[in-house]
Amino acid sequence: MGPLIVAPGMNMAHIWARTNCNFHANGQTGGCNRHLDCQGWGSPPNTSAEFALNQPNNRAFLDISLVDGFNIPMDFNPTTGACRGIGCAVDINGRCLAGLKAHGGCNNLCTVFKTNGYCCTDGLGSRDSQFFKNSYPDAYPQGDPTTTFTCPSGTNYKVTFCP
Fold first, then answer.
1. How does pLDDT run across 33-80, given as a tens digit for each residue?
2. Which H, E and C letters describe the chain, residue by residue?
3. Which candidate in 8, 65, 107, 122 could, as Cys together with 69 as Cys, close a disulfide (CB 3.0–4.6 Å)?
4. Which of 72, 95, 76, 45 has its CA nearest to residue 155?
5. Domain that holds residue 97
6. What CATH code is carried by the domain that includes residue 61?
């Protein structure tokens, strides 16, 4: 994959990989309701890189999110600037908890159970969300404020699927 070019004026984005798709069907993970171009987020499970550019104090915010589950390992690294990259080369699908397993991925608790107890935003998470945190420490599982990273504005990045 070549460099990702961010259009002028774009401040936020959400990037994920689709697996085993032919664009005439949804594919295995990360599909877009049978469309090539997504008009929103891909369907779970999917590992995603998220960023917010040009934020206050000349900063950019980035994370690798597991809010929609996990489908493939991913790295999100700066290619310029003085900040740390995030990522994990570990495929956690084989260790996915039984109730979260999906064809080609591992669902998040909120996706499966759809209750406030599992869709928490209080930063505490549940025992099962700790599975994601322990497997992929740099990633953002549901309700974890400690895994959003910052870089100086103007930093360039590279997203690598299956590093």
1. 777 777 778 889 999 999 998 899 999 999 999 888 999 999 998 988
2. CCCCCCCCCCCEEEEECCECCCCCCCCCECCCCCCCCCCCCCCCCCCEEEEEEEEHHHEEEEEEECCCCECCCEEEEECCCCCCCEEECCCCHHHCCHHHEECCEECCHHHHHCCCCCCCCCCCCCHHHHHHHHHCCCCECCCCHHHCEEEECCCCEEEEECC
3. 107
4. 76
5. 12-161
6. 2.60.110.10
